[in-house]
Specification:
Structural class: mainly alpha
Radius of gyration: 20 Å
Strand order of the largest sheet: 1-3-2
Strand content: 5-15%
CATH architecture of one domain: Orthogonal Bundle
GO molecular function, one term: DNA-binding transcription factor activity
Helix content: 55-70%
Number of helices: 5
Low-confidence stretches: none
CATH topology of one domain: Arc Repressor Mutant, subunit A
Protein name: HTH arsR-type domain-containing protein
Keywords: DNA-binding, Transcription, Transcription regulation
Mean pLDDT: 91
CATH superfamily of one domain: Winged helix-like DNA-binding domain superfamily/Winged helix DNA-binding domain
Distance between the termini: 55 Å
Amino acid sequence: MNSPLYQATAEFFKTLGHPVRIRVLELLSERDHHVSELLADLGIEPANLSQQLAVLRRANLVVPHKDGTTVSYSLTSPSVAELLAVARGILTGVITGQLGLLDDLQSSTGADSPESG
């Protein structure tokens, strides 16, 4: 399957496939941030942040605003924040389901385990 739409969608999700980029988008979902604020929160090297912001700019997910020598970033659309919230909800559901399975597994193996008797 080589549909341009599916290819573009896959590329979009690849853009989201880095923890620093996800965290940057989460922070920007709250409010615009200066680069110095992002650096302080993320605890990464400026070059690394610059690289991640460039990826997000190329994907048109963030936009820079320059005020003198200060640069801040904002999301290009509130839909980005909505997408992150939906993803967090899905992940929460998946993890909750896995914890339920783990509890069931531990309950059933605990009763049958040689260590329990």
